[in-house]
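Below is how a single chain appears once it has passed through the pipeline. First comes the sequence as given, then the structure the pipeline wrote out for it. We keep one example in the README because the format questions we get most often are answered faster by looking than by reading.
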Amino acid sequence: MNHGSQGLAELLPVPPSFSAVRASQPALNVCRRRSLERAARQQNAPLPRRPYETALDTPYQVPQLNGSSAGGSMSPYSERRDINEVYANHSWTAILRRAGLVDDPAPEGEGDLLKRVSSLLHVDDPDRVKAYTLLLSDDCPVYSELDLRMQTYATMLFFSLWPKGGGFTSIGSGLQSLRVHRQVRNELRQVLAYGVETAMHVPKPLGLDLGPLTGTPLAVHAHYNAFELLAALRWASLKRVPGNFREGVAWCPDTQTDALFVTINKDAKDFSENVRYRDFALSEQFFHWESQNRTSAA
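Resulting structure:
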């Protein structure tokens, strides 16, 4: 009789191609017991309680992105696989829901937020991870109580999740709406922790004597998306959302800064000849930027 194998085949969904499932002994016992329960009901027979009674009473924790869980690891990252394998077509919360490992119902709008989790896979500097993690915590202060630096981080996080504003009337109301999305916030915190743990560069904060840029929470050698940069440079607002930004250069009057967005490696199959601008580093201090045809001096 092979009730254990039959139980696993029937109870576990077909995993995504990238996953590596490793069942712990308590998990195997649960599957075997459920298989026995089903067989007992079919035979109208009493179900023996041992040796599964203790295993069934063992607390179980939902697997985490870093591979940790009570009773064994089911995460694809136990062998340090690339996190992009999950976020190519999925989200961690969606996978857990599919496997039946998350019981609470999905709040309205969870699917749209989960699609934005991948926009934060690049975050790799400790200061930003610490700030975002606080903003995603259960006891995060309201936006109006944050200092200017944290408000800037809040705006950067807001536009990463809602590049076109999400229909909110303020940054604070948008972040407050995340309170009901416990699973989304949990997944985002795991992604941030993973990013800083696997960072390949040591970030260097901007200098202290940069005029209007002084105090801007940006760092050299850190990775950002365009929405974060436009928010940090105070170009982005709910009246001028970064999701509508299409130019290669943005003049940011509040910080007296020109932000140049450059694609260094322009593959011929992705870029036509008339937009393969000659952009390259001349030295540590100078960069050669060829302006677009529609760029004006104003």
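The longest strand covers residues 249-252.

See the next section for the split statistics.
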